[in-house]
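Archive maintenance. Older records in this collection stored only the sequence; we are now back-filling the structure field for every entry so that each record is complete. The fields below show one back-filled record exactly as it appears after the update. Entries are processed alphabetically, and Cohesin subunit SA is next in the queue.

ARCHIVE ENTRY
Title: Cohesin subunit SA
Organism field: Oncorhynchus kisutch
Length field: 1171
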Amino acid sequence: MIAAQELHTEFQFPQEADTQLSSDTDLEDPDVKNAKLGKGKAGKKGKKAPGEKGKGGAAKGAGLGRVNGHHQENGMENMTLFEVVKMGKSATQSVVDDWIESYKNDRDIALLDLINFFIQCSGCKGAVSAEMFRHMQNSEIIRKMTEEFDEDSGDYPLTMAGPLWKKFKSSFCEFIGVLVRQCQYSIIYDEYMMDTVISLLTGLSDSQVRAFRHTSTLAAMKLMTALVNVALNLSINMDNTQRQYEAERNKVMAKRANDRLELLLQKRKELQENQDEIENMMNAIFKGVFVHRYRDAIAEIRAICIEEIGVWMKMYSDAFLNDSYLKYVGWTMHDKQGEVRLKCLTALQGLYYNRELNTRLELFTSRFKDRIVSMTLDKEYDVAVQAIKLLTLVLHSSDEVLTAEDCESVYHLVYSAHRPVAVAAGEFLYKKLFSHRGPEEEGMPRRGRQSVNGNLIKTTVFFFLESELHEHGAYLVDSLWECAGELLKDWESMISLLLDEPMPGEEGKEEHQETALIEIMLCAIRQACECHPPVGRGTGKRVLTAKEKKTQLDDRTRITEIFAVALPLLLAKYSVDAEKVTNLLQLPQFFDLEIYTTGRLEKHLESLLRQIREVVEKHTETDVLEACSMTYHALCNEEFTIFNRVDIARSQLLDELVDKFNRLLEDFLQEGEEPDEDDAYQVLSTLKRITAFHNAHDLSKWDLFTSNYKLLNTGLQNGDMPEQIVIHAMQCTHYVILWHLAKVSEGSSTKVNTLLSVTNDYPLSTNATLCGNYSSLQAELLNFILDHVFIDQDDDNNSTDGQHDDEASKIEALHKRRNLLAAYCKLIIYNVVEMNTGADIFKQYMRYYNDYGDIIKETMSKTRQIDKIQCAKTLILSLQQLFNEMLSDLGCNFDRSSSSFCGIKELARRFSLTFGLDQLKTREAIAMLHKDGIEFAFKEPSPQGEGNPPLNLAFLDILSEFSSKLLRQDKKTVHLYLERFMTFQMALQREDCWLPLISYRNSLQAGGDDDTMSVISGYSSRGSSIRSKKAKPASTGKRKLPEGEDAVWINREQNVQTPVMMPSPHLSSTVLRDPKKMRPEESYMGVYSITSDRRSSGLMEDDEEPIVEDVMMSSEDRLEDLNEGMDFDTMDIDLPPSKNRRERSELKPDYFDPSSIMDDSVGIGLLLRVK
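Back-filled structure field:
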């Protein structure tokens, strides 16, 4: 009996030699095994038990028969067991029943079919013959199958892609489980079938061939799982039999049935014998397979073992849930592969979920708790999520297991940018802080100040303040939304906490607590109305279901009904507090304005407008004024009946502000009088209010341009205008121009005249200032970025305000510089400045990678999507600029092993990697890059006279980094173009100074298997990998590119000859032709001539690959790494340390999200706000 008290640390092998199993047990001779069946336990089990008879008989009439060991059903004659399972057209039950019938008729043939099933499932083309099965030992059979294995193919059924093979794996596992279930009453005890199968799988699991090892381990683990289920059923039956026996024996002698007692004793004995045999089988699999394979070199195999041992411990906890088996899961939690660590955590979750098992897990928890806590910071997000969920289950089982330090390490993860991690941490936080209620809370109301929710809201505020991450309230609310949504939607309790006076004996709220509560309330309202995560935590808006839409509408209606009444009161109470008012004024943006009319709430609207007007009059802070402006913008919606009422209030306010500004300006600009500080403050404060409103409202009818022009012109003439007044006057003028541009873009037939009318009424100097010299402006912008962004931290004296040792100041200064760089990169992306100005940005990629690498990389990606060729020309221009700078520093006789030259070469290698693996998509861009590089290399003659290499010849060494990105036929074309610049004497030179030319020519003349591979990858799906060594390049020629896809490569029937080293695929864009018939002028420029129409249509396909860069890749490992399946989202980047390096963990998450920094939704200037 396998009971908890009787099961030892490991299953014990039986003492009899004939049942001993090991990894090198040979396949026994069938005649010897047949002789064994007549004696011992097998002899007693020659017939089926009653429970199996019906199941075995089901095979008859199932319509599935076998001929010579092969299935035939519905036209599937002569199909092997492997083929039937692979097709998946037959029910597994009928396939197994058919095999059992075959086993009854001739067990050798049936067992041979089962052996070949496992061999073929491993992807082996060989088969075990009856002769081999009869006379060869197990190890010899495996060696023979290994020799017949097709090693050229790296794929086998368990790893092949496609829906058929994914279904095969589940069918394979199901087949093994059903096989044991159907044979559990007699066949598995015949000491023949199971002995042979276990011996075979044990031997295969020790093979050097991965396919054998992987497949046999999966089969052995599933076989073990099925046997554990059989052992569990036997244990239950034994317990039932024992209870029946005890009940019968305890009867008085007159009522006791001795025959029944004898039958129960015999049944218990048979069950015990069966359980002993099952125990021996499990012992053989555990010792022969699991103990060796749970630490296999292949992560998938290790994961299989851990997953299945978790199933055993959960299924049969009395036998397996002890430290002898838990230790394997605990050890494997340190595995280097996230997939295996994930299986450990999911296995443990199944155990901790059952509270009845907690006492058996106490020792394991105390031993491995620290490891589980540390896994919440795992680099694999999926592992971190499951670790937090496991700790939540641990917390649910006992509050005393986790210390305060353990809990705090999970609490801060609610602010994680990865939403699944944050949501899991939010659930942990809710379980720890909010789910426990004391007896004093039983009679408290549900809502209100003195309520259960009121206390929980206070707890949330205290946690938010203690976390010291006050700017991330939206992250906290989003983390708690799924588990504490009802609490966060209790806006009545929040309002009561803010407006009601504290009860006698109740501690009053402090100012910072009220500020935090208002921020949490705003974030909760935004989450309810927008129904998507905050910025930086989520891939974008998803489509809401019908139920979610209804909930959204209901929440919005309830928010409007509550806050339409409460908001004026809140504004009146906190009108002097800028931070509170700023958050409160954002609430009307989420209102359903129709309710003001349908709910007869007009008087509350009037009260709200009065409070907003008072806030505008009291405050001059930009954030407060912009919030007021956006509130008016939200309320002034022409679709609702309240529009006229709000529009009148807005116009009255603006009339007063503009009149006051004009009056103050007239006094301020009077000649001969020096303005005092009070006048300047009045002008500035009024100008701030007008500018804030002009941001969201069209104030063109007030003609603010004239007033601001007078103000700026006076400042230019006198030079004594206060800086803040100049800044806000320029900003207001900027809004005037943007609103005129918005009107022009609406499609008026007189666009040009409308635009010119902005400036025609003003002096010529104003027009010149607005139009200006555009190229000079671009140069000034670029110089500003180079002077203020690409600087060392130690030299940034101005940005740190003299606090060089203050790390927070340095981080804030870096944040400002990153924003400057991102703003300039947007100008490049939106084509405001020329793309080639990006060369000065791109060349800083290596030096400032740690500070700006993500922004520069995202800019490269966006520019490639706009124009591949121009982007490539910009990249080569940046390399040329660096090369020229090196020449000016080191002279023309520099050493090519110098750090400067090697740095440029390394940057070129990084640029090359950004073009990805699909060379067909970047074909034109790479070709133009080589063209510009060749021209640059031969541009300047040698200063030492003829016979010496050109001044820039060493640049070819840098250019050779891009040769691997050329298609094989294009290398020939580029080589022909190179020869146009070479003389006959150059081709004969072998001195060291000519090595760049020699190496570049060699890189173009190499046939390159990688080129063939790249052509193939262009036609195949990205998910497929090229594993076969017998690839046939010619097969790719069957597919043609779409018409016009690469038409740029042909001009007036221009054809290009490819090298003769390998047969070339016949592409629609390349045709073989004798190069002697080419005209010189067509040899390169004709091929790469690009029309403006082609450029304007866009050169990048919609599925363009993102920029890829593996900074850990060395030159000798380059091809190997490129052939790896690249995961662009999870590639690790480890750069050498630099003095500008800043750990990203020290910086705010929002600052370092390149996708959000470069997001198209963030427009140039304030165009989107104007719209």
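Update note: Residues 1-76, 748-772, 799-804, 1008-1171 have pLDDT under 50 and may be disordered. The longest strand covers residues 65-67.
Entry marked complete.
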